[in-house]
Design brief:
The structure holds two protein chains of two kinds.
Chain A lengths: L3 E8 L2 H17 L4 E4 L2 H11 L6 E2 L2 H4 L3 H17 L5 E5 L11 H13 L5 E8 L5 H10 L2 E3 L5 E3 L24 E4 L3 H11 L7 H21 L5 E6 L3 E8 L18 H13 L2 E7 L2 E9 L5
Parallel strand pairs in A: 1-5, 1-6, 2-3, 2-4, 4-5
Antiparallel strand pairs in A: 6-7, 8-9, 9-10, 10-12, 11-12
Chain B lengths: L4 E2 L11 E6 L2 H17 L2 E7 L4 H4 L4 H9 L2 E5 L9 H17 L4 E7 L7 H18 L4 E8 L5 H8 L4 E2 L6 E5 L4 E7 L4 H8 L8 E12 L1 H13 L3 E5 L3 H9 L6 E3 L1
Parallel strand pairs in B: 1-7, 2-6, 2-7, 3-4, 3-5, 5-6, 9-10, 10-11, 11-12
Antiparallel strand pairs in B: 8-9
Helix pairs in contact in B: 4-5, 7-8
The chains are: A alpha/beta, B alpha/beta.
Keywords (chain A): Kinase, Serine/threonine-protein kinase, Transferase
InterPro entries (chain A): Anti-sigma-factor_SerPK, HATPase_C_sf, HATPase_dom, MEDS_domain, RsbA-like_anti_sig
GO molecular function, one term (chain A): protein serine/threonine kinase activity
């Protein structure tokens, strides 16, 4: 088998999860295929108990592997590339993609589920993305339905997914909770230098680490540069902050990047915008991008309680 | 240690400081030049005033100590001749190196020059040449007791020209350029901010920075911001010159950016 076999499985109980996941893993091990489990803590424990020890499975901590979509892609590309170069005829991966049911905003993971159909196409990969219907929001399930070409069922079937590729473009803009307050900074068509100065001044009172402070300044500078270079004026920059977290948004009147991979992979085709967006997808804690009534908005969040 | 920064004060400079001084008003230029040279005399440097016009000695009247120094030979005035501009940057550096050696031989601690160099920048070619000269003389100053104030009359030069000249001096009187690139003992130092807006200026400024012993050593300690465009430009310049880019910075952010971009041949040091 070549190419990426991107499959979802919707389960409503722990037993259903194991009924789908265990044969998937065992089938890979039997066939001598590199088999990777990158699940959240609960599902990892369920699988470890069901599969027993020392069976050749590669476990990746889901919280690390799925810290950010661009990180996940970079890490998986390295891993899959190494397996493929070593001659693996097929690779199996089961991973818990984060969503609001697991306490994580969805937008960039929705873009991830869409983008990897292209990004992993070069690998002989069978990827299973299980979603727990007890905690997964409806809008996430709708995105899951249009981004996975195949569905695995608890009865052991592997079916083509009729909803694949249907529906609207992904990503709805969900304002950050900090945006309920007035922005601390509002600038229209600012120079990147003016934005950096304003962000530095505004975050002086927060508890952001030096690296986080640098990341938010970098992100603000970059998305304003992109708005001014590739967007349609006016370019509106805003910043909100509480004691430990900073949110910046840039809105322009243009349609945004047409490439669904924008920000998720270091595109060389549009080096000017692609690399910069990708850097903030690798460094910031959350990045959402999408079209709303006001135009195209990029939203970045850095820091938060418990982060240093 | 040479001075690096933006200032409106010309006194208190070191014997090897290099100032860029765009000015609007000739009286202001002459007053600052006189202060700078008088301060150099205090340090035991020979003083040299280079400008256009006649009766150059009267330009320095605001500092009586200079009148005395002109009489006893510790200071001199040089009228900028159009033919001065025909010297190559390398030749011009040699002229000042010889003058510095002569000053040392005559018992001075070094040489200090204040010059209205506006007339030397008349065409794109002469701008390139003077920019090359500015960096070469800056490198010379890192090791020799030669200090200079390079003044440029704003009204005669376009703003981008002023910015370009500004970017090549460790000391400026105004933030005409978003960053400064100057020579260090083993490479270059960058100060200020580099983003996609300043990228062309960075390429121009880098043009004369010759890597030494296979390394382009960049002291980025004073660099407040550099984006991936700037970093890739530095990296590309080093590679083009078959050199390893060595970045010195106290901040972890620069090393993180290097690692994120997969620039494995870049060396980050603190």
């Amino acid at each position: 088998m070549t190419g990426f076999y991107h499959q979802t499985a919707l389960y409503g109980s722990d037993d259903e999860f194991l009924t789908i996941a265990v044969p998937f893993v065992e089938g890979g091990l039997r066939a001598g295929q590199p088999t990777v489990i990158a699940c959240a803590e609960k599902n990892t424990t369920l699988l470890r108990d069901a599969l027993g020890r020392d069976n050749g499975v590669t476990y990746l901590p889901g919280a690390d592997q799925y810290a950010r979509p661009a990180d996940a892609i970079a890490n998986y590309r390295d891993l899959f590339g190494a397996y493929a170069r070593a001659g693996a005829p097929q690779i199996r991966t089961i991973g818990d993609v984060p969503h609001p049911g697991l306490g994580v905003p969805w937008d960039w993971w929705g873009r991830y589920e869409n983008a990897i159909n292209q990004v992993y196409a070069e690998f002989p990969l069978w990827g299973l993305c299980p979603y727990d219907t007890r905690i997964t929001p409806a809008e996430v399930l709708a995105d899951v339905a249009r981004t996975h070409e195949y569905i695995a069922t608890a009865s052991g079937e592997h079916l083509p997914n009729a909803d694949f590729g249907n529906g609207l473009a992904l990503s709805r803009l969900v304002p950050d909770v900090l945006e309920r307050g007035s922005p601390l900074v509002t600038l229209i068509d600012p120079t990147p230098a003016a934005v950096r100065e304003a962000v530095n001044a505004a975050i002086g009172g927060t508890s952001l680490s030096d690296d986080d402070a640098h990341d938010v300044v970098y992100a603000a500078s970059e998305i304003v540069t992109n708005g001014l270079t590739h967007g349609v004026a006016p370019v509106l920059f805003r910043l909100w902050a509480d004691a430990s977290r900073v949110v910046v948004t840039v809105t322009d009147r243009g349609p945004g990047p047409s490439d669904p991979l924008a920000g998720l992979v270091p595109t060389t085709a549009t080096r000017t915008a692609g690399l910069g967006l990708w850097i903030l997808h690798r460094t910031c804690d959350y990045v959402s991008m999408g079209l709303g009534d006001d135009g195209f908005t990029v939203r970045v969040s850095v820091g938060g309680p418990g982060q240093t | 240690m040479r001075t690096s920064g933006v200032t409106d004060v010309v006194v208190g400079m070191h014997p090897n400081d290099h100032l860029c001084w765009p000015f609007d008003d000739f009286a202001e230029f002459r007053a600052r030049a006189a202060e700078f040279l008088a301060d150099g005399l205090e340090l035991g440097q020979r003083a040299c005033y280079v400008a256009r016009g006649d009766d150059l000695a009267t330009h320095l009247a605001t500092e009586p100590v200079l009148a005395e120094a002109l009489r006893d030979g510790r200071a001199e005035v040089v009228r900028l001749e159009p033919r001065s501009a025909t010297a190559t940057p390398e030749e011009q550096v040699k002229v000042y190196a010889a003058a510095t050696r002569a000053a040392l031989r005559d018992g001075f601690t070094g040489l200090r020059v204040a010059a209205d160099a506006t007339a030397l920048v008349r065409s794109p070619d002469s701008l390139d040449a003077i920019c090359r000269y500015e960096h070469l003389i800056d490198r010379y100053m890192t090791a020799q007791p030669f200090s200079a104030m390079c003044a440029y009359h704003r009204a005669e030069l376009p703003e981008p020209t002023i910015a370009r000249l500004n970017s090549l001096h460790p000391v400026n009187n105004a933030r005409c350029a978003p960053f400064r690139l100057h020579a260090t003992e083993d490479g270059i130092a960058l100060h200020g901010e580099i983003d996609s807006v300043s990228l062309d200026l960075l390429s121009l400024a880098l043009d004369n920075a010759t890597p030494e012993r296979g390394a382009l050593r960049v002291d980025a300690t004073g660099l407040r911001f550099i984006d991936h465009h700037g970093l890739l430009t530095l990296h590309g310049y080093a590679r083009t010159n078959a050199a390893t880019l060595v970045l010195r910075s106290q901040r972890s952010s620069l090393a993180r950016l290097v690692s994120l971009l997969g620039l494995n041949d870049v060396k980050c040091v603190r």
